[in-house]
Design a protein that fits this description.
2% of the residues lie in helices and 45% in strands. By secondary structure, the chain is mainly beta. The strands form 3 sheets. A 6-stranded antiparallel β-barrel has the order 1-2-8-5-4-9. It has a 6-stranded antiparallel β-barrel with strand order 10-13-12-11-14-15. The longest helix has 4 residues. It is elongated.
Length: 215
């Protein structure tokens, strides 16, 4: 069964995107993560987003702690960096190419499917967003459209509220810049869930096309 499963479409030749899952200090600054796009080589000059810190790759280690010269999309790696202190790096930051960096935004439009929620949801509602290695508080700045269940068409007028079972388009806003991409361009960097009050995720958009409006 596993042999017959389709391979993941990885962007080996795409721009580098390595979300930071962990960071610590060990004879320098070490960051840990999975390469979601592109490739990484020793001595590469890169940028840490969203704070635009210029860094250099001094060493790369694979999952069994062997030092390697390069890694590609899909690899889990530990990277020793020059030019950044671990105190200036947070989980959810992305190591990326300076020529084609990941987008860093505070507002974006997205399609949301409301799976579980007891009450109606209005503009101003807050939740915790989980995207790649990122965890950040987000608010629904505005509800823009809803999708008709019968026709699947998007409404012209914005809804006053949304409830369980609906699919909507909303404008999401964060207090700080976050790294995110259009789902159509980079699914691993564009799918997310929203969680409320420590309960099961009630928004889910992994199977839907995200429309991100960078501002």
């Amino acid at each position: 069964h596993l042999d017959k499963m389709p391979m993941v479409d990885r962007k080996f030749m795409g721009p580098l995107m390595l979300p930071i899952a962990e960071k610590y200090k060990d004879m320098g600054t070490i960051v840990v993560g999975k390469i979601e796009s592109g490739r990484l080589s020793r001595n590469d000059s890169l940028v840490l987003m969203p704070n635009h810190t210029n860094v250099e790759v001094s060493q790369i280690y694979n999952e069994v702690e062997d030092e390697i010269q390069s890694a590609i999309c899909g690899d889990n790696v530990r990277v020793r960096l020059k030019g950044a202190d671990d105190d200036d790096i947070s989980t959810g930051f992305v190591l990326t190419s300076p020529s084609n960096p990941v987008h860093a935004v505070r507002q974006f439009e997205a399609q949301l499917a409301i799976l579980e929620h007891k009450n109606i949801i209005c503009a101003g509602y807050s939740a915790i967003l989980h995207c790649h290695t990122l965890s950040e508080e987000v608010s629904l700045a505005a509800l823009l459209h809803y999708f008709d269940k019968a026709t699947g068409r998007k409404s012209r007028k914005p809804p006053q509220f949304a409830k369980r079972g609906q699919k909507i388009v909303a404008l999401l806003e964060t207090a700080q810049h976050i790294c995110i991409e259009r789902f159509a361009d980079h699914p691993q960097m564009g799918r997310f869930t929203l969680r409320d009050e420590g309960q099961l995720f009630f928004f889910f958009s992994a199977s839907m096309t995200l429309m991100i409006c960078f501002r």
